[in-house]
Amino acid sequence: MRSLRRRLLISLWIAVLAVGVVSAAVAYLQVSRQAKGLLDNQLAQIAVLVSGPSAGTRPPPSDDSDIEVAVWDADGTLKYSSSTLLGERHAARAGFSDIRLSRELYRMYATEIGGQHVEVAQPVDVREDQAEVAAIAALLPVLLLIPALAIVIGFVIRKLLQPVRELAQVVARRDDFAQETLPSAGLPTELKPLVEEINKLLTRQREAAERERAFIADAAHALRTPLAALQLQADVLEGSADAQERAARLADLRAGIQRAARLSTQLLSLARAVRCRRNSRKRGIG
Amino acid sequence: MRVLIVEDDPMIGASLVRGLTDDGYAADWVRDGAAADAALRDQLGEHQLVLLDWGLPHKNGLEVLKSLRARGNNVPVLILTARDGLTDRVEGLDQGADDFLVKPFELAELKARMRALLRRHAGRIEPQLSTAELALDPATRTVTRAGVRIQLTAREFSLLHALMQRPGTLLSRAQLEERIYGWANPVESNAVEFLLHSLRRKIGNEQIENLRGLGWRIAADK
Description:
The structure holds 2 protein chains of 2 kinds. Helix content of chain A is 65%, strand content 12%. By secondary structure, chain A is of the alpha+beta class. Chain A is rod-shaped. Chain B is an alpha/beta fold. Chain B folds into 2 domains: 2-122, Rossmann fold (3-Layer(aba) Sandwich), CATH 3.40.50; 129-218, Arc Repressor Mutant, subunit A. Chain B contains 8 helices and 11 strands. Chain B has a 5-stranded parallel sheet with strand order 2-1-3-4-5, with helices on both faces. In chain B, strands 6-7-8-9 form a 4-stranded antiparallel sheet, with helices on one face. In chain B, a hairpin with a 4-residue loop joins β7 (134-137) and β8. In chain B, α2 (33-42) runs parallel beside α3 and α6 (154-164) packs across α8. The two termini of chain B are 24 Å apart. At the A-B interface, α4 and α5 of A face α1 of B.
């Protein structure tokens, strides 16, 4: 059985899942790109910071972000380096670049500020981790909303299809001989024409059944007269004494039997005619 | 005993006439409501019982019955009908019918109901008619005199039956003819006298009294 409710539910769930997955993927990608942009900005700001007058006297605002800094004077002498990894100048030109330092891939920012050459580097792994954390945080609401939406959709569909279920129960409760039509008040506009058509059909069938019943009753009554005649003819045949009278009464009984047979033939052809008329009407409609 | 049969079906009507004539009834048969009306209007008191079909041409059984009762005629009426609905039966009985028989029926039942109606109408309780010496059983159509069975012809039985309806009541020749012969059997002159003669020979001369010029009666004393 093809359940409308199940099909609606499954297709809507698939749609919600698809939209959810796509929007989650887009959010993930965008947020991780934005995070990398922010981290690049952070590198640039640190470069400005460490090139200031107090540069070299204090370590850079380093946390767990593993940012390494190195500053060179205008004449090329290393003024400060946070790590031996940056013992020599790597970047020939200013700007961002990816660089491999002792086998690890770093994101490097190099710039010239006030005659000094500044290089700021951060391991790509750390950047990726941070970007991923941010992206997953952006992903979470979408992932939580998908099942919530699925539940809401299920509830709404159930609620909307309630009249269909109720109608089915009404029909199921009807016995075979129920003649009243189905209630159509308060039904949704999509269901109402269906119920109204069913009601028209029920009415037509009831009328046909009534005609048939009337025909059968008429036929039964029509048969009673010849049967009564046969009964009486047989009764008087039994009561006759002399042979001539008996022969006359037997002839009457035979005539009565022939009449009853004729009548039953007439009834049969009448029933056939009614059926033919009905069939031709059916063809006319179809 | 004279009966009016009102029945439009030729086969049923003919069989009823035969079956009732076999039992010594004088049966008159009309085929529609108008004729029934005319017969019952003209011959007031001629028939002792009416068998009335419900579905009749021209004037249906119910209307015939209504106008019959409206004229004050209290003859017992037995309805014969193909309709067996409760409302039909109730309406028929309420409009003055005495009994109701649904087609098809057996002749034996019809005759038993007719006897019961005639008995009730005459105000009798016992099914048998009797005087001091004679006893007549309408159901078995037997006559006994002092316990001895007497063989009678159908006509003789009818004549005795008519006389014994009310023992002691005088019946004229015309009245006796009326009860024994229907329209279909024209009465020959002296036919009643002839029957009376043969009946007297069988049951005893003294059982039937003749008041010259007035009529005959059965000895009533028990």
